[in-house]
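Lab notebook, design round three. We kept the backbone fixed and only want residue identities now. Task for the bench partner: fill in a sequence for the structure below.
Input structure tokens:
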């Protein structure tokens, strides 16, 4: 029997081939939209709005200060250090320790203030949909733990544990029934100041938003995210985003990224995906998944293992089984 890692690699290859067909089938498609959205969030002028609202150390700071603290990392790309605009300098987003699952962070960078040595953190930013077959909280804690353990690679002396940097992992999760924020951190339950202690090294912040806001959003953070992620025409989106980002003062690339994202309206993507699933059995991701599920079933994998490897829900697995059964009967 193949190992899970081997099967996972084969599954990724199948899905990549399927994605190419789905791209043709659905035009721009969901994958392109997610890529553009993540690209847009990788600019300091964008991510600073989220950091200011959810990271306690920055809530009383102005946006320019917050932006200056994001992503001052030396990379091969051209990054202007301590600038309040431009693309974020990112740390290596691949994590592949021996005998552990390989993961790819959407954004992995730093939060560091030049005028305050207490502000020196590792920042992780992720975008997800709520239609996963696992608990986002569990995955988030796993990412936080990995971001802590990875630091030991560069810390060698006996005092290295004292130099571990706090990790903030921020997840934007779409498809929730309401707009809500969950903030998880290590608490000292015997202390009145429960979060003011040296062990509070990880903080997982999950920002859950609906697919489409149905009324005026009063909360700044949710308003900002809905403007970026909701379905609306380009002119409306541009007018609304103007109260948060002044493109006349921003670099050209961020405006181009915004325009590219606008062309991939969320409603079109959702509609396209719905139609694509129906056709995808013959052409696309669904076809690739069906082939992998059939292969795993023939090798005796359990349902839970198949759902984890293929990244599908229990109901989707049941549907694939029904399709395979009908094919056998015919």
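Proposed sequence:
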């Amino acid at each position: 029997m193949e190992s899970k890692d081997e099967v996972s690699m084969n599954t990724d290859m199948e899905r990549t081939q399927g994605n190419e067909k789905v791209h043709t089938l659905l035009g721009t498609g969901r994958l392109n939209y997610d890529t553009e959205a993540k690209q847009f969030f990788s600019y300091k002028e964008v991510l600073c709005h989220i950091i200011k609202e959810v990271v306690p150390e920055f809530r009383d700071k102005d946006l320019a200060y917050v932006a200056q603290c994001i992503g001052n990392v030396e990379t091969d790309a051209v990054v202007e250090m301590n600038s309040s605009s431009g693309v974020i300098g990112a740390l290596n987003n691949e994590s592949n320790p021996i005998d552990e699952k390989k993961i790819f962070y959407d954004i992995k960078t730093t939060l560091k203030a030049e005028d305050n040595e207490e502000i020196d953190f590792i920042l992780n930013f992720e975008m997800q949909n709520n239609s996963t077959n696992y608990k986002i909280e569990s995955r988030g804690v796993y990412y936080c733990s990995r971001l802590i353990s990875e630091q030991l690679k560069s810390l060698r002396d006996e005092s290295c544990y004292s130099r571990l940097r706090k990790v903030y992992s921020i997840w934007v999760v779409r498809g929730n029934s309401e707009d809500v924020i969950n903030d998880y951190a290590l608490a000292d339950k015997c202390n009145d100041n429960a979060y003011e202690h040296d062990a509070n090294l990880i903080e997982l912040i999950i920002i859950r938003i609906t697919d489409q806001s149905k009324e005026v959003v009063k909360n700044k953070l949710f308003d900002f995210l809905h403007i970026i992620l909701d379905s609306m025409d380009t002119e409306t989106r541009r007018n609304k985003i103007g109260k948060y980002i002044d493109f006349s003062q921003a670099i050209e690339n961020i405006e181009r990224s915004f325009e590219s994202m606008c062309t991939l309206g969320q409603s079109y993507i959702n509609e396209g995906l719905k139609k694509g699933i129906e056709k995808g059995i013959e052409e696309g991701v669904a076809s690739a998944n069906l082939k992998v599920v059939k292969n795993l079933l023939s090798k005796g994998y359990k349902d839970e293992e198949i759902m984890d490897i293929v990244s599908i829900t229990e109901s989707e697995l049941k549907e694939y089984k029904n399709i395979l059964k009908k094919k056998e009967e015919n």
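Keep this in mind before ordering anything: The longest strand covers residues 116-129.
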